[in-house]
Amino acid sequence: MSRHMSRHRSPRAARGSLWSRRAAYPALAAAAVVVLLAVWVAMDLPPLSDGGSNATTRSGGPGWSATPGAPAAPSPSAPSPSAPSPSSSPLPTASPSADPDQALSERLAPILKATTASLSVAVLDVEDGDGADYGVRSGTETYDTASIVKVDILAALLLKAQDQGRLLTTQEKSYATSMIQVSDNASADALWQAIGGADGLDAANERLGLTSTTGGSGPLWGLTQSTAADQIALLSAVFGIDSGSPLGSGSRTYIQGLMGGISAGQDWGVSAAGVATGLKNGWLARSATGLWDINSIGRIVADGHGYLVAVLSSGSVSKEAGISLVEKAAKTAVAVSAAEDAGDTEDDGDAT
User: Fold this and answer.
1) DSSP states of 252-290 as a string?
2) Per-residue model confidence as pLDDT tens digits over 238-256
3) 330 close to 309: Cβ distance less than 8 angstroms
């Protein structure tokens, strides 16, 4: 009897033993979890995957944490989960635009391909000071100015009058008006002498910031040598873009007024690129070759934007061909500058 009872416990006793064993399972499981976590942290392993296949997270990439916790609630100022973190990926900055000189050269290439003439072209945005210029095809560094030098002559005359503390005389004003507005050569001859010829022009140009312009020898003011870039410097002094212009406000206003009243028939040139608020053209047939120098300088407004434009050319087969070439070049220069302005605006928008 006793042996039987030792081999067979009562149902109550069996249930009690079972419950005691079951009661021990949670404690054992908890202990196992603690050990596992301790080993995991000690080995510096990444957290277990949530079931996805994000290789970046599983390899310890951005967002990896050795101490998992509840995800933080997004705040209004925090970047969206899909946006890069400011600390690891900065905001995009304005991409550098194409070099404007190179852009102008590329845009002028098909125009020059269709002619044997050469060009010197420059443009300046009067609002932001950005510009572009193009040299020459044949390597010639300067061009005959022809009658565009008349603006330079007038500027030199006004500087001389300023230095003497006087206004222009009635006769000087008459010469100046005829010289600029109808391109009268006799008036230019008189004022060329009044400023002291090439020496007087060169001295004035040193003050005006022209570095590659040399007065014509003797009475030949039309053979003054210059570049488009120097003509932009002259225009900057005349139109007040150069804050250091030696020309006083009264002198600038006077030249601007005359350049704003060019006679009909002489109002071609850079005016093809917009509405001209100041203009002076020059044209000269070279007796040795029969080819034409055609030049144009001025201030124009295109799409509400102001530009100083200078185009000097040599070697055109006719006056008409030269005018057409100059006008195409002026339009191209303004288009390149306008595109550069548009690119700056778009880049600024991307960067904010």
Assistant:
1) HHHHHHHHTTPPTTS--SGGGGSEEEEEEEEEEE-TTT-
2) 999 999 999 999 999 999 9
3) yes
